[in-house]
Amino acid sequence: MTSVNLLDEKRLARVQLVSELQYLLSAEIAGVRTAAYSLGESEEDSLTNYFQNMHSKEAKSCKLLRVAISTLGAEPTWEVGAFFAKATAIAERSDRWRLAERGREVVRTRVEALISEYSQSEIVPFLKEVRELHAAGD
């Protein structure tokens, strides 16, 4: 393999990594907005604490992903992922909670795959923190 091909492969890998991180960031922005929307509803119930916790963790996750993307020399997105529209179309907070839990698992799984695939990247510490924020049972 020539050095030009190796450079092209590295660039492609970086573009793919940044693209995946941008996708995750837009999903996390949607999570923050979904939690805020859910907290803005007047009902006070057992899920209020869950959505407060979700809001805090999703906001931390956004910050970590923004730093990771910036570390790679890219501009972080402000796009709100499709999750927000899907979640807010659900009237019952308990159903929205179930969707949020599935979303948390999807993010955790995708982050774990990135940690594995890019284990030597300088952004792995940020990804590990994001994974912890999305740990099951938390």
Descriptive report:
The protein is mainly α and 138 residues long. It has five helices and no strands. It has helices spanning 3-40, 47-71, 83-88, 93-117, 124-133. Helix 1 packs antiparallel against helix 2 and helix 2 (47-71) packs antiparallel against helix 5 (124-133). The longest helix has 38 residues, at 3-40. It is elongated and about 60 Å long. The relative contact order is 0.16.
Set down the secondary structure blueprint.
Layout: H1 3-40, H2 47-71, H3 83-88, H4 93-117, H5 124-133
Keywords:
138 residues; single chain
Average predicted local confidence, pLDDT? 90
Based on Cα principal axes, name the global outline.
elongated
Strand % is under 5%
Q: Kindly name the structural category.
A: mainly alpha
The Rg value, from CA coordinates, equals: 17 Å
Largest β sheet strand count, sense and barrel closure:
none
The DSSP helix count reads 5
The total strand number stands at 0
Q: Helical residue percent?
A: over 70%
Terminal-residue CA separation: 46 Å
SSE order: HHHHH
Low-confidence stretches: none
